[in-house]
């Protein structure tokens, strides 16, 4: 139990609890007004993650690691509950029991994958068992490339169809990230032989280029939506939300890059 454990735990919880809070809002906005039970559940999760977020902001690097370990367990429970809620909603949508609600099934699946990622990370932190660097690089990229490909699809489908140029651009990003995801899955299936420093380094470089340009596209979209300059049904907070997730991925790629080039040793613990 160390200071690094506290810092890394707080970084994950601060980022993802805000994300979970916003998912609750997005889900709620998509429900029909007669779905009062679902609306109440979504509002409940909003308050739960809002409270977790402020608690995480009140702790700092000097907080007792045991306090953070207990806090991680509490957050893990909340992440499990919101995951179950999202999967329940997905089931209702796929069984056509909420006709007219406006959350895409892929979006609900997507936010449940993010909840699952969050709870796995909390488990790993508390167990002190983070993936070795070469595995972490592949696992994180497979996870985030799919998340980025989904975002491009959501943007493309939530823009007004008359925004033809932006819809085209979103479709191009969707294809680009689908291709990168397939490449990542190829590297994944070739492991451990594919886990050489030059291959992983090139893998990170190539992904970084595309994530940067998607991040810039999201930033532009966010600014245009905030200024009411384009036609869409994208909530400004959703535009900012997907922008922040791209920034997070870039941050993780850069951290991997530094660790990878700083060492050639195998089985180094990930640093992100
Ligand atoms: Fe999200
Ligand atoms: Fe996302």
UniProtKB/TrEMBL annotation:
It holds the Pfam family DUF2935. InterPro entries: CotB-like. It comes from the Bacteria. This is DUF2935 domain-containing protein. It comes from Paenibacillus stellifer. The lineage of its organism: Bacteria, Bacillati, Bacillota, Bacilli, Bacillales.
